[in-house]
Design brief:
580 residues, alpha+beta, 18-stranded antiparallel β-sheet, 22% strand, globular
């Protein structure tokens, strides 16, 4: 700037009437223009900054990610601060502590961060998991970490340094903060940052396909089930149990890759997810079940007053598939319920007359009923299942035997549980009396109460069913079944449901939950033992917390979600209405 002013001085003498004033004005504005230019340059650089995933090694089993998550952190922090304030826990500094935490997180994870679990080769040639986390850091983060890291770094890779800190390897340089549980993994990462050509996470096909379909979210998750299956197979080969657990590993491999996350908005938040099913996996039935779609009509028989509906496309193979898994674990089930009920066989038979449309429904009053701690079965009085029936004659022939078998097994389960609890309690009480152990006596009394409560719960369970239109309605409470069969408006005609605009044809599934009725502190008190709520001292202390909890729940105004299938990719989207 000085050179330019000197060069312009001869022109100033030629224009004494105003040139100098103009030049002085420009000179005064040069600092402001320079700052503006620097800000614009910084913004341009920020737009071209490469995502952190472009530096991380390929082959991550799991990642947790943040992308411009400042708004999300601020909103969640505001909710937490309001809850703590309403709960009145006596912590005067709670707000200021949250403010500091938000500032630190905003200066690091609020920008961008990834924590990943990677498979590294162990000493015996097997693969084992290791952690690598990195975040963009600002001045505040660098200052805080500077107090934790040694003054002199222990090693350098290119332009990046790191040190060993309490069994971990960590460092901060060039605007990044990084930590790893494995030295070689961290060095491989820093080498990529320094220009070494090597496979990266962002360029790996599994990660790219899942993330591209899900889109960038403020808070995200990525899981590579197929890669995890390879690590597990490597471990199982060392303990000589591959055949016993191979079906589990095959199913895990078939799940493929998953990416998803959420982004906050002024009116709540949205979620998006993508699961890339591995169709070359050995568990072919699972792949067909996951990628199934159908045309939904169950909304035409569900009561419009339902508090929550979750509908899914359930492939006709689902019953037989689940039955095979139950058969595998039958020998490990300690109570004999699976054997007595022949549940696996009945599920396989049911698959012959059930179509690929299922729904789990919470009827009116379900939310408050679930809060009643003194009656664990209260929620069953508002819970029913719907399944499309394709062969009514076959259903009529099989269902009586199915229900009778399950109910007989439930009655037998009561006796088994009571016998085991009684024998265990008697042994405990005899030992306690002999040793005069007060704590053991109290434990025995507690087991007696728990056994009685479990027995009462099992006594209330009974499989009941009925038909409405082309759908089988199943419940474990006659009250719930009667409520589902009652005449009245159906969900398909409800204005709120229609306004949601859900895709019901060729869909993999959907869910709908309207704005629930507000709860009060007294409703939440039903979740607590009577000993706490009946005591004046404790009930007074809990009053603020219960009020804060009710306020937190009442700000939820409903949700809708949708799942679709494109090729071998399951795409899910949801919208949650919440008043921050």
């Amino acid at each position: 700037m000085t050179g330019r002013a000197a060069g312009a001085s001869p022109q100033v003498r030629h224009h004494p009437s105003g040139g100098a004033g103009k030049l002085a004005g420009v000179t005064r504005f040069l600092p402001a223009l320079t700052v503006s230019a620097l800000l614009a340059l910084g913004a341009a650089q920020a737009q071209t900054v490469r995502p952190l995933a472009e530096g991380l090694p390929a082959g991550a089993l799991l990642t947790l990610e943040t992308h411009n998550a400042g708004p999300a952190l601020k909103r969640f922090s505001g909710v937490l601060e309001r809850v703590l304030s309403a709960a009145d826990l006596g912590e005067d500094d709670a707000g200021s502590m949250l403010g500091v935490a938000q500032a630190v997180l905003g200066d690091s994870l609020g920008r961008e961060g990834i924590a990943g679990v990677f498979s590294v080769q162990g000493k015996k040639g097997t693969f084992q998991p290791a952690l690598l986390a990195v975040t963009r850091s600002g001045a505040l983060t660098d200052e805080l970490l500077g107090e934790l890291l040694p003054e002199k770094p222990g090693a350098r890779v290119g332009r990046y340094t790191f040190s060993r800190v309490d069994g971990l390897f960590a460092g901060t340089s060039n605007g990044l903060t990084y930590v790893s549980s494995d030295k070689a993994l961290l060095m491989a990462y820093l080498g990529r940052l320094s220009g070494k050509a090597a496979p990266t996470l962002a360029a790996s096909a599994p990660y790219a396909a899942a993330q591209r379909a899900a889109g960038t979210q403020e808070l995200g998750l990525y899981a590579n089930f197929s890669a995890a299956a390879k690590v597990i197979r490597s471990q199982l080969a060392q303990i000589m149990l591959p055949r016993l657990l191979s079906p589990v590993v095959d199913a895990l491999d078939t799940l493929g890759q998953f990416a998803g996350g959420l982004t906050t908005t002024a009116g709540g938040w949205t979620t998006a997810s993508a699961q890339v099913v591995n169709q070359s996996g050995k568990d072919r039935p699972l792949a067909r079940i996951l990628l199934d779609t159908t045309d939904f009509g169950v909304q035409g028989v569900i009561p419009a007053s339902a508090e929550a509906v979750r509908a899914t496309a359930c492939h006709p193979e689902t019953g037989a598939y689940l039955g095979r898994w139950l058969t595998r674990v039958d020998l490990l089930e300690p109570f004999g319920f699976l054997t007595d009920s022949q549940l696996a066989s009945h599920l396989e038979q049911a698959g012959r007359y059930l179509g690929d449309e299922c729904a789990q429904v919470t009827l009116a009053g379900g939310l408050k009923a679930a809060l009643n701690q003194e009656d664990p079965l209260a929620g069953l009085a508002t819970t029913v299942s719907y399944q499309r029936v394709t062969d009514r004659a076959a259903a009529d022939a099989h269902l009586p035997e199915y229900a009778r078998s399950v109910n007989d097994a439930l009655e037998g389960l009561r006796g088994t549980v009571k016998s085991l609890a009684t024998s265990g309690m008697d042994a405990l009480m005899d030992g306690a009396m002999a040793d005069r152990d007060t704590q053991a006596l109290m434990l025995g009394a507690g087991l007696a109460g728990a056994s009685q409560g479990l027995d009462e719960s099992l006594a209330g369970l009974k499989m009941v069913y009925a038909f409405r239109g082309d759908y089988l309605i199943t419940a474990f409470s006659q009250e719930a079944l009667d409520a589902a069969l009652a005449e009245g408006p159906v969900l398909a005609d409800d204005a709120g449901f229609r306004a949601a605009g859900l895709t019901l044809q060729g869909s993999a599934g959907w869910s709908y939950q309207p704005d629930p009725a507000d709860l009060g502190a007294q409703d939440l008190a039903g979740m607590l033992p009577r000993e706490l709520t009946g005591n004046k001292a404790t009930s007074g202390m809990l009053g603020g917390a219960l009020t804060a909890g009710a306020d937190l729940i009442n700000r939820f105004d409903g949700t809708t979600s949708q799942r679709a299938v494109a090729g071998n990719v399951i795409i899910g989207k949801a919208s949650v209405r919440y008043r921050w």
